[in-house]
Structures are given as structure tokens and as C-alpha cells.
Amino acid sequence: MSSVSTIHGGSNKDLNTIVNSFIDKLKRREIEGSYFIALETLQFLKRFLSIARWNNINELITIIRQLGNKIEKAQPTAFACGNVIRRILASLRDEIEEEIRDEISTTSNVSNSTVAEPMISSMFNLLQKPEESKNILNKLNNTKSKTDFRQIAIQSIKDLIDEITNINDGIHQIAIDLIHDHEILLTPTPESKTVLKFLIKARERNNRKFSVLVTEGYPNNTSKAHEFAKKLASYNIDTTIIPDSAVFALMSRVGKVIIGTKGVFINGGAILSSSGVSSVCECAHEFKTPVFAVSGLYKLSPLYPYDVNKLMEYGGSDKIMSKMDPSNRLDTINPISDYVPPENIDIFITNIGGFAPSFIYRVAWDNYKQIDVNLEDKE
Amino acid sequence: MSEIQAKTPQESKEDAPGTSSTSQPSSDNTTKSDSGKKLSNKELKELKKQEKAAKRAAKKQANGITIEEQQKIALLKKEKKQQQRDQQLKQQKKEQEKKNQKNAIKTKAFKKNTLFGHLETTEERRATMLTLTGAFSASRASKVTAHGLVVPMVTNPISNTNVLTTTALGTPVPTPTVNQNDSSIETQSTAELARSLAAFALENDQFQIVQGMSSVIPNSIENNMKNSLLTTSVKELLLNKDLVHPAVISLTYQLSNYKIVGSIPRCIAMLEAFQIVINDYQTPQGTTLSRNLTNYLSHQIDILKKARPLSVTMGNAIRWLKQEISHIDPNMSDKVAKRELCDQIAQFAREKIELADQLILDNASNHIKDGTTILTYGSSKVLTEMIIHNVVDLKKDVKVVVVDSRPLFEGRKMATYLRSRGVDVMYALITSLNNVLKMPIDYVFLGAHSILSNGFLYSRAGTAMIAMSAKRRNIPVLVCCESLKFSQRVQLDSVTFNELADSNDLVNIDYENPIEKRGSQGALLKQFIKERTKEKEKIDLEINKQKGKQSNSNQSKNNGNNNNGNNSNDSTDQKNGESNNNNNNKNILDDWQDIPSLNIVNILYDLTPPEYIKKIITEFGALPPSSVPVILREYKGSV
Amino acid sequence: MTDFNITETYLKFLKDDSEMTMPIAAIEALVTLLRLKNPSTAAEMINTIKSAADELTKSIPNSISLRAGCDVFMRFVLKNTHLYGDWENCKKHLIENGQLFISRAKQSRKKIAKMGVDFISDDDIILIHGFSRAVFSLLTEASKNFVRFRCIVTESRPTNQGTQMYKALISNGIPATLIVDSAVGSILHRVNKVFVGAEGVAESGGVINLVGTYSIGVLAKNAGKPFYVISESHKFVRMFPLSPDDLPGVKDSLDFSLTNNNRHANVSALNEGMDDNEQNDILCGPIVDYTTQEYITALITDLGILTPSAVSEELIKMWYD
Which residues of A touch C104 (CB under 8 A)? Predict the structure, then answer.
């Protein structure tokens, strides 16, 4: 944060307080669920930008990156934060590129051949002529830009909020075609609002009849699972609660497995906030039962899960075994999240379409800039 | 109030025989049990007749009207008129009326999952057990009456609390049999004993509750009996009920209450019960022991089946026993033959279970070296022994991961036991399987309920998932299993043949108290209380203040009951807050029975395909799953 | 100028700079050709390059890797001449910047090392097959970042790449052990991940690499171990082999004939002790194989961490843009 404060002298105290209070909120898990985390982050970013001061666009990008880095460091498993911040950065960078292009076309006609094809293919990088756009970008730093980047940033935040709040419709449109009448579905992620809304809509709007098996997700998600089941049943969906141990036994009868995700990585793997899902997906894989993941675009992360163990979150042992003989305590393990590798997921349904896990990388690059993957400043 | 109540049943009892003998053959059965023909009429009426008799008696007493009129009175409209005359009566009728209304609703409310429609649900099993109980207790009651004792044939529903207290006061009756738990039932084993202890038994007998219950069976359970198939099978059982040995009945209760669990303990308990049965057996005239005993045992087995489906071990043991019986020389005297059979049973248990376990243990120990990490699922007797043997006796440094699952939490017992013996234990739930398997696990050891002849492992639900995950991670899966558990049966998936456990076990989300194994009685009581409370509340609203007072006292009694029943009182009705205030742990799904499209499936077993299993360790040595039929062919003949 | 031999130039480039990979050498050779021939029309330039590339691929037995270089070069020239019409400019750029490409190629290896270093974590045991500069630079980068890991290097017969890799690792202070190729299956359960380089990356995302890669890929998949390919993006090549030996320029490498003199002479000596060279004479079979994409967890390239399908996207873009 120290480097941020050097950029904008006066208001840094206010900024520091709001940044820290937001981080505390995340750390204390006051915001639960990636949906709310994403929205809260955007709201926070809006406030942050209205207070923060900067001299040129590069500084703006730097402070957003620093903010993103700080949040990510503080709560590395709240992927939605980093995702939305990177989305905003990407839209800012798009704007800059636009501007550079304008600049070039107005000022210099000589160099247009060099920049006319900024990236034909990254493979050609090898044979490309040395880039000149960097110089232009530097030039841009010094001259006062015509574009109001604060406005652009705020606008893209608003757009993103709109997108996030409307994801369910998009997902529903695509996903409904994947369910047939009287199909038996299984969902091991009862905490997912996206799954719940999707199932209810499929029942109500399309009047599709289907049965849903809900696993309990003991010990962390059982009450959520029961509520989920009750809610589904209240919409006249044939719902059955099964213990986590019965998944294998029933998998042969299941038509599709639906999972809600917490974050989707660039390799097509997904992290979920319910333990036991990876085993369920493994079962499904073994039975060749399709697994489809419903996920908003904002959950897509440009990160690669190098070490899955680092992404896991663990809870206390009190939910596993609360009463233990103090002299003979047992070791327990209570993961509260789970990682499903791409080979166990058949398709991702997002609000902008359905994608195979192997294609997720492309969807990610459409929405993020490679340069922003690592928010840590190396310089 | 209590005075009246205490009186009513007695009066009704006295009157009942007279009334029924003159007009209604159905209630005849209550008193006369020796004739098979009349018994066959019992069926469903058994459930209601006592209550009816009570009412009729009460009505008759109050009105002095004829039998023909009584039948008319059964109509609801007329009952209402009478309510004004006798307060106690009125309340009963109200309940009856409500029950009738509810019957219509409840028929639909009772659910069967579409996937498991072919399997017997706990509710059905419970209903069967109740009917049988009713039959057994009724027969005994009649016997006692024959000896001039006044038996409270109908316990007034509201006086339920009284019944409970008497049971609590009950003193254990010394019995000649092995099983001490349900001693009172065994007390009744012989007619002489029954006579001598009749007065005694009446006060402390568990049957007393059951008898009371047969008149207050909750509507939903009553509805289960509408299943015609079930009725027929129950009917058959009732026909032969006098042939059933009390030791077997006692065992049936223990099994149905999950007091005895695990395929090996169940088998041992059954063999012990059979030893008693054989000891008490008298060959009827005109036949031989080797011919008739098998037949006699079949009756016992029929009733055992009603508690829970027979385990494979039980089935194998029965098959062996029948074979042994048929081999008995017809010229041998009964006494010698019986003693020989009992010896053989004891030897069978020793050979097939104790010695087999020892061999398995030795064989499996070869895999375990210093520093080995073992993963196991649930609780297995032979595995526990094996681990203890290796750690305590052989002083090997072994780490054990016990994976467990809801709702039975069998692994807790095993994990705490192992830990208390100094084993390095890690306890995890099946949902964290993926994380657990990331640790360096050397072997997965599994117990078995049964191994089918196509090599599939039939074991506690969740085993298949463990085996699959281990296989996918190239961790060898070993199954420790006595050859007694080998079954001739073939099966392809877990849905076709399975056992359904009580769905209510999944309702309670509690980390501290895993659901206590509940038998039909606890559940019955709860359900009864639930229904009763609801009705009472409605009655409360209707009855005027003066009468209301009395019903309040009733309710408070019911509340007391509630707490005795130790589990949550469930009611959707918001007005029930008053009666619920003692229950802080309300569960989300307490009212799941009332939501038509909500279901809870709690299956006990699943099927693990042979490709996940590296080897099966039996007393014959280790073998691949594909060799199961070989063992069955080679050794089953000699078993 | 007629005495210019593209093959010799290519081999000379490879010899002079041990750090240079085959595709780069091919590109450099073609640049040298352009400089010497200095074609006067676009058509002449294209024809010159085409015939030289053909000659080169034919004369070199293991041509997959250099084929990738020729492909990229050819495509770049075509694109510039056809699409933008300024072939002069393009030629000038190519001739002038020959050295730049080499440095960029080396740069891309550094980039790979930076990107892939996250794949190695403490206490890892990594299986390596063959000698690949990209793999080596990644491993040294990791060791520079104080990651403690160990390597198992296969012997990589019939080449001596395994020994080469082993020596290189040891001299860089990375703990390593050398095993025979046939031992892979038996030690794989102790390995955390597998790293291999690539001769070429095919359009499907599969890789063409030193023989044995395919077997290791299958084994790794079976054991559930991640299998990573480390390769520069200029090795992406427009090919779509269907089976492990379905590779252009690879003749049926199995020789069943009884008449092969060389072999005949040696068969009698089989029983007696003989050195490796003699054994190699009897050995036949391919020296490269193709590993299909389903065995590959991810490709670590200078373009980022790619899934196999991302590779085909790159190649599609190159040819259809």
C-alpha cells in the first residue's frame, strides 16, 4: 500500500481505511458466496475509484493492480474479487488500445504498416518486427488524455454489475436444452444459487418434469442441502435427499450431474465450495454420466491451478467430531472446498454459452488481458 | 381425569368379550387365539378392534343401547351428539373423526421412492412388526384372561404416560434364556412360566406398551398395511404365530431395533437363538425330528425376516443348519439329536467365524510393515482386530485413516477404539475422500457384508466410492472377509437389491449426537405423539373453557412424553410453539413427510464392482474377486 | 551462388550454436539463403524458399522440428506478400534481423522457464525423458528460485540424451538419478509429474518427441500423474498424425528381413558381450513417436500455459487468419 500512497498524497488515509475494512470483511467471511463477493468488490471498487487520485492512465492501472494484489493476497480463495478487478483492467486496457490506434491514425501515417496487425498470431512473434507501440504508450503517459478514464472505469463496473445480476437468465436458456423430461439429476452443490434458480426455472417456465437427487455434503453443507431440497420440493420438483455415501450406488440411475462452481480456472478445472464434489464427479466419470457445471462468466479466472492444495480451504474439526477424549484426540480433516479436474467435467454452461473445459482458456482470454494475470508488480 | 381413564379400559375389557361373542366375530379373535381359522380374520382389524371395543363398551355403558345401534353410532354425526353427555367420550370421538379425515390425506403422504419402490421401506417393516406384536400380545393377553386375570386390553391413548411409567418401574425378570434384554418376552416362553409370572409380567412387561400401541398405531403406519402383498404375508405369519419360539421373537425385536448390527453378530445371535429353539423343541407325534425340525425352523426364519432382510451370513448358516438336520439319523433319540445339533452350531460359529478371523488376520498382517498407512471405511470387526494385533502385539508403526459417513457413523466407534489402544488414527468423512487420498496411503482395507458370486462386494453404502477412488489412484484395495459371507447370488447394481434404512435418520443434522439407532417403538411413539398433539390442539380450540382445562392437563402430559421420547417434536403448525418450546434443535426437514415431492433415501449397502478390488483375504487365503465362485463350488458343499 | 547448400548451412548453424534449436536453424538457413540469393520478385522469393525448404526437409532424416521452422517462415512470407503486398519491406526485415530471431528464440525459453516455474513445488520428484533445452532451462530456473526438487532421468535410448541431461542436472546442483527406459513403469508411482520436451507440437495438441514419450504418456495417464510438455511455440507444426508412428518422413522402420547384412553379422555376436554401437546396429524402430493430446495435461509454452486445444487454435489462426 505504501506505493499507492505515494501516488496520491492527500486522500490515502481514507483509501487505506476503506481498503482495509473491505479486506477485513472478506477475511471474516462476512460476504459469502462468489456472487456476493463479486458484487461487493465491484461496489467497493466504484467507491475506491471515486476517492482515488491519479495523473495518467498508467497510474490508474497501477493503483487498481495494487489494490487487486492486496485483496488477492489477503483472501486468496475469494477468486471472484480478482476476477472482476481483472475484468475492469481489461476493459481499461481495451480503451487504451483504442486510443493508441486513434492516435496513430491521426498523427503518423508512416508507421501504420507496422501496427496495422498488432497480433496476427502470437506464433509470429518470433518473426515480428520490433514493437513500436510501447513508445506510443509511453508518449501517452506524458500527454493528458482526452478520454475520461474514471468515467470509463465506472461505466465498465456498472456494465459488469448488470452482467452478474442477470447471469441466471443466460444460463437457463442454454442449460434447459440439456435436460429431458423425467430425467434424474444429481447435484452435489446445494449451496449454489445458480443451480437452484436454474432448476426452478426449468420446472416453472418449461414445465419440465424431472427428479433431483441432492447429496448432503456432510458436515459443512448439510443444512444448506436440506433447505435446498425443501425449496425444490416446494416448487413441486420431485426431490430426494441422499447421504454422501449413496452416490456410487445411485449413479447408474442418474442422467446428469449438475454442479455449481465457485471459480473456474483456465485449464477447465473448477473449485467448489462444497467438499465431496470431486468424488461425485469421479463417480460420474466412471459411469460416463455427463457432468455439467453452471457458472457465471465472472467466476472464470485467468489463473492456472498450479498447486491445487494451495487453493483448498479447511474448516475446524468440531464439525467432524466435536467430543473427543482430550487425552486421545483424533486427527481429523475438514476441507470446505473441493477441486474438480477438467477431465471430470463435461461442459461449462455460462451466461454467454456452453463451453467444453478445453475451451475455457479462450473464453478467459477474451475477457482478461494476459498482462494482468499476475497482479504482483515485479518492477 | 386419570381416575376415569384408569377405569375405562378395565371396564371395556370386561365388557369386550361379551359384546363380541354375541355379535362380531372379528373381535372374537381378541380373546380366542387357539383356532387358526379365526385367526385368519384378524389382519387389519387387529389394529383397530381394541379401540373399537373400548368405544363400544363405553358407549354401551353410557347409553345402554343395543348392538345394532352401536354400529350406527359409529357414524360421526351421532357421535357428536353424545359428546355433550360425556366429556371423556367426546374427546375420543373427536380424535376418531380427525383420524378418519387424516386417513384420506395420509394415504397419499406415505411415500415410496420411485427408484426403490421394489424395496421394503422401514415404515412397512415397522407396520409389519406392529401387527405381529399386536397378535402376539393379544394371544398372551387372552391366555391370561383365561386364568381369571383382568387385563387392560385397551389402553386409552391419553393414558399413554401411565403406561410409560409402569414400564420404567419394571423389574427384570430372571429368565432361563441367553438374551437378557427382552427378558419378559421370554418369560412367556412356556405356558407354565406365563402362568406363574403373569401378574408380575403384566406390570413390567415391555409388551404392555406395545399392546397399548396396537390400539394407537399412527395413521400413517396403519396406511402401510393397505399394501395387499404385505397383508398377505403378515396374514400367513399370523396363522403360524403359535409356532414361533419366544427366543426368536426376542431376537426379531433386537434386530428390528438395530440392537444387534453387523452381519457376523447378527449371525451369531441367530445361531444362539436357534440353539435355544432346538433345546426347547419337542417333536410332535407321527413325525421325526429330521423332518419336522426344518419345517419348524422355517417358521422362526419367516418371522426373523420381518425384522430385517436376512444377512448373507444368516442365510448361509441357515442353509447349513437345515442340511445338518436332514442328515440326522431318524433313529437317533430326540435328546441326543438336539444336543448334537447344538454342539454342531457352536462348532460352526467357532470354525467359520472365530478361527476364520484369526486366519484372515494373520494373512492380512503380512501386508503391513513399519510405516504403512492404511485407509479403512466404516467399522469392521476383523479389521479392528487386525490393526490392534499389528500395532499392539507386533509393535508395528501403522497409521490408520478411518473414513466415515452419515448417518450411521460406525467409523467413530472404530476410530476412538483404535485411538484408545494407541493407534495413530486419522478420522475423516467420506466427503473429504479426495483430500485424504492425496496423502500417501499404502492400502485400502475394507470389510464386507457379503461377496457375491460374480465377484461384487456388497457392503456398507460408500464402500464402492472408496474402492473406486483408490483404484483410480492406484492404491490397492483389499477386502477382508470370512468365506461364510460368500453368496451364491449375483447382482449387477446397488439399486436392484438393497436394504432401506429409516429415512428419519437423515433428518437430524447434529454433529455431536449421531442419531441413536432407533427401533420402531421410539419412532412410533414420536409419530403417535405428533399426531396426537396436533389433534389435541385442534380440540383445544373447539372445547369450551371448562373442558379446556382438562385437555390442557392432557397436553402437559403429552409434553412430558415428548421429552421422554428424547427427540424433536415435529409439527408444521406454528401454533405448536408451546409444545415445542422444549426442543431447541429443530431440524429443517422435520416435516418432510408432509411435503409430497420431498423424499429421503437412506440405503444401507452398495455394490463394488470386482475391478476395483485387488484381492479378497479369506480363511482360505487370498484370492482375486474372480475366484469367488471357485470357493463357492469347492467348499460350500462341505460347509 | 549456386554452390550454396541449404542443408549444410542448416547443419552448420546447429553445430556452431549448441543452444540453437532446429526450427530456428532452419529459419536462419532460409534467411541466409535470402540474403545470398536476394530474389528480385515476390514470386521468385517464394519459390526459392519453397524449394529450399523441400530440399532441407528431404535431406535431414528427422525433419519434424525443422519443418515447423520452415512452416512459420513460409507462412510469414506468404502473409506479408499476399496480404500486404510489401514483400520488399518484408525481405528487408527478414534479412536485416536474422540475429534477432535467434535471440528471441532464446528469450522465449526464458519466458517458458518463468511461466513454468510454478509447476514445480518443493519435494517434487520429476520424471524427465530426453534432453530438451526448454525443460532444462525450466529446471535450472526452478533451482535458482530455491525450489527443492529431484529428477528421475530416463536413459532415453537409443540416444544418449538421458546421460546428457543427467550430467547437466548434476552439474547444476539438481539431484538426479538415471534409470533405464524400461523402468519407467515401475517407478512411476513415486513420481509427482512428468516433463518432456518436444520435437514438434502437432495440430491436435499432441507432441512429437523422442521415442518412448508415448509410452511414458500412457503410463502417466494410467497412474494419474500430470504429464507436461515444455516447448517453444515455434515448434508448433501443421501435422495431424493418427498413430504414434504416423509421421511424415518416417519410413516403415521395422526391418524383418533376414538378408540385412549388417544385422546378420551381428546376430551371431549377440550372445557374446558386445558394445552399444554394435547393438545399435541391430536395433531398428523409430526414433521419434507421437503422443496424442489425451495424454497431455498441459503444454508450457512461451504463449502461456496451453491446453492441447489451444495449440490447434494457434495453428488455425496462423493459417486461416
Answer: 125-126
Q: Which domain holds residue C42?
A: 6-110
A250 interfacial to chain B (CB closer than 8 Å): yes
* Domain B226-353 in CATH 1.20.120.420: yes
Query: What's the CA gap between B196 and B202, in Å, rounded?
Result: 11
Average pLDDT estimate for B188-216: 38
Whether the full predicted model's pTM is greater than 0.95, yes or no, is no
- Strand order of the β-sheet with A338-340 is A263-264, A270-272, A338-340
Verify that C58 and C131 share a domain, yes or no: no
Q: State whether C189 and B474 contact (CB < 8 Å).
A: yes
pLDDT digits (tens, 9 = 90+) for C89-137: 777 777 777 777 778 888 888 889 888 888 998 889 999 999 998 999 9
Q: How far apart are CA C229 and CA C213, in angstroms?
A: 10
Nearest to A89 by CA among A367, A376, A301: A367
From chain A, the residues in CB contact with B475 under 8 A are: none
| pLDDT tens, position by position, B438-487 | 888 999 999 999 999 999 999 999 999 999 999 999 899 999 999 889 98
C-alpha cell at C308: 492441447
Chain B residue numbers touching A275 (CB-CB < 8 A): 431-432, 434-435
Provide DSSP, B62-125: HH---HHHHHHHTSHHHHHHHHTT-HHHHHHHHHHHHHHHHHHHHHHHS---STTTTSPPHHHH
Chains that touch A (3 or more CB pairs under 8 A): B, C
CA-based radius of gyration for chain B: 27
- C-alpha cell of residue B447: 470389510
A230 touches chain B (CB under 8 A): yes
- CB of A371 less than 8 A from some CB of C: no
Q: Which domains, and CATH codes, for chain A? A: 9-106+120-157 (1.20.120), 167-324+331-366 (3.40.50.10470)
What Cα–Cα distance (Å) separates residue B494 from each residue in A258, B362, B567, B605, C274?
22, 31, 32, 7, 60
B460 and chain A: CB distance < 8 Å anywhere?
yes
Q: How far apart are CA A371 and CA C321, in angstroms?
A: 23
Residue A378 at interface with chain C, using a CB cutoff of 8 Å: no
Residue C142 falls inside a structural domain: yes
Q: Which of A22-31, B131-140, B343-352, C150-159 has the lowest mean pLDDT?
A: B131-140
Q: Is B462 on the interface with A (CB under 8 A)?
A: yes
Question: Residues C301, C156: one domain?
Answer: yes
**Do A239 and B599 meet the contact criterion of CB atoms below 8 Å apart?**
yes
3-state secondary structure of C317: helix
Interchain contact A253–B (C-beta under 8 A): yes
> Number of CB pairs < 8 Å for A and B?
183
**C303 lies in the same domain as C163:** yes
Model confidence over A63-117: pLDDT tens digits? 888 888 888 888 888 888 889 999 888 888 888 888 777 776 665 544 443 333 3
The count of other CB atoms within 10 Å of the CB of residue B11 is 14
Q: Mean of the pLDDT values across residues B555-561? A: 44
Domain check: are C84 and C142 in the same one? no
CATH class of the domain defined by B367-505+604-638: alpha beta
First to last CA, chain A: 15
As for the ipTM of the complex, it is 0.85
Q: Write out the DSSP string of A103-170.
A: HHHHH-STTHHHHSSTTS-GGGGGTPPPP-HHHHHHHHHHSPPSS-HHHHHHHHHHHHHHHHHTHHHH
For residues C43 and C14, state if they share a domain.
yes
Q: C touches which chains (3+ CB pairs under 8 A)?
A: A, B
DSSP-derived letter for residue A299 is G
The domain boundary residue, chosen from C55, C76, C110? C110
Are residues C98 and C164 both part of a single domain?
no
Q: Which residue has the cell 517407478?
A: C187
